[in-house]
Amino acid sequence: MAYHISDDCIGCGACADQCPVEAISEGTPYVIDEDTCIDCGSCADQCPMGAIAPAE
């Protein structure tokens, strides 16, 4: 199950910098490619807004 970025994203890019497989691309909000995401949670750990969680 991939992670998802909510509308609480402020576009700081902290998550994209931490992704080991470069699954996160810039957008409003940033977007995680579900096919590339390896579910490591690095992005969620770095998000200052708590805007990233596992997709349901």
From the N-terminal CA to the C-terminal CA, the straight-line distance is 8 Å
Radius of gyration: 9 Å
Q: What letter string, H or E per element, gives the SSE order? A: EHEEHE
Per the CATH scheme, the topology name is Alpha-Beta Plaits
Major sheet summary line = 2 strands, antiparallel
Helix content: 10-25%
Give the amount of beta strand, in percent.
15-25%
Count of all domains:
1
The total of beta strands comes to 4
Strand order of the largest sheet: 1-4
Q: What characteristic shape results from the CA principal axes?
A: globular
Structural class: alpha+beta
- Which segments are poorly predicted (pLDDT under 50) over 5 or more consecutive residues? none
CATH class: Alpha Beta
CATH architecture: 2-Layer Sandwich
- SS summary, helix count: 2
Cofactor: [3Fe-4S] cluster; [4Fe-4S] cluster
Keywords: 4Fe-4S, Electron transport, Iron, Iron-sulfur, Metal-binding, Transport
Pfam families: Fer4_7 (PF12838)
Protein name: Ferredoxin
